[in-house]
Amino acid sequence: MKIDSAFATAPHATYARLREEGPVHRAVAPDGTDVWLVTRYADVRTALADPRLSLDKRHSRDGYRGFSLPPELDANLLNMDGPEHARLRRIIGRAFAPRRIARLRPRVQEITDELLAGLDGEVDLLPAFCAPLPITVICELLGVDAADRPDFRSWTDTLLAPESPEQARAALGSLHRYLLDLVAAKRARPGDDLLSTLISLRAEDRLSEDELTSAAFLVLFAGYENTVNLLGNGLVAMLSQPGAVEVVDESAVDELIRFDPPPQLAIRRFPVRDIEIGGVAIPAGATVMLSLVSAHHDADRFEAPERICPHRPDNQHLGFGHGPHYCLGASLARMEVEIGLGSLLRRFPNLALAVPEDELRWRNSFRNRGLLSLPVVLDPDLP
């Protein structure tokens, strides 16, 4: 089976067919990689926490390529397992302590209000709201000066959708050099920001220089991309089922993540030995892809999965992962979506798409689902 544009344009129909046909499928990714695609909720959830499935690329035996990073940015939580992962997660987790994240709520609301105050008429919400909200939050979290944020956003946007490999390498090089300079500046003049906290923990807990820079890169890249798409996908979902969500609270946010998760697939895994998933034998070193969006629409786990139910009982979605690799930034992402979408709809209760839903343009990716643009009319009923 070839993974093609259907996975990006019609994921629910495609995955419904695959779930019906079987729990695991051999497939060829667009880059030519042979993968094993897991589609049912019970298997995906179990596999996410299975220590026999490693995130360490050194366990790959089938030529997995994926997104190539220099070693200085690759020493992050998405490439580690076991004691090494637990050590780094414990250190970085201290920088994401609940009190630190809770203190950000007033500032996230303030940023949201500032962005909404500048909106009027017909607007593309992706560059006007969905992107600047998380990049501003992440930059303030890391301690990036306001004057440098346009470059920061430009490099990140290029990495998400490069026009060529050369352009991606140039953006990655610029971002890497900036992070190195930022670390040096924070080391000389610490502030009340996450990067300064990580620097102080580096000396205390023997965090290597590459691990420090990789952590900053992961916070930026994952925190920006996923939250942009959480905001965009969530708004489209609500507009597709009018009245389904009356209050954007944490429960509603979790349901929107279940309904249309930006990461369609969990981070690739590699079996450290021959294993079985759903009764299917998978050899050691194979590339295993766990479909979150398919798991979230598995009717054996979620009643009426095609409906948005903001107070769905026992909503154990997998949008932030499960087990030892559960996302450290989950509470921050939930807060940004709750404040962002809640404030947007309170300010513009009549907001509507400016084009039919089937004319929205989505990124051509089977890994991450996100819009290329989000044109809306803010007050369609006004003369």
From TrEMBL:
The keyword Repressor is assigned to this record: no
Protein name: Cytochrome P450
PANTHER family attached to this UniProt entry: CYTOCHROME P450 YJIB-RELATED, P450, PUTATIVE (EUROFUNG)-RELATED
InterPro entries per record: Cyt_P450, Cyt_P450_B, Cyt_P450_CS, Cyt_P450_sf
Keyword entries, A-Z: Heme, Iron, Metal-binding, Monooxygenase, Oxidoreductase
Family: Belongs to the cytochrome P450 family.
Transmembrane helix among keywords: no
SUPFAM superfamilies: Cytochrome P450 (SSF48264)
Superkingdom, natural source: Bacteria
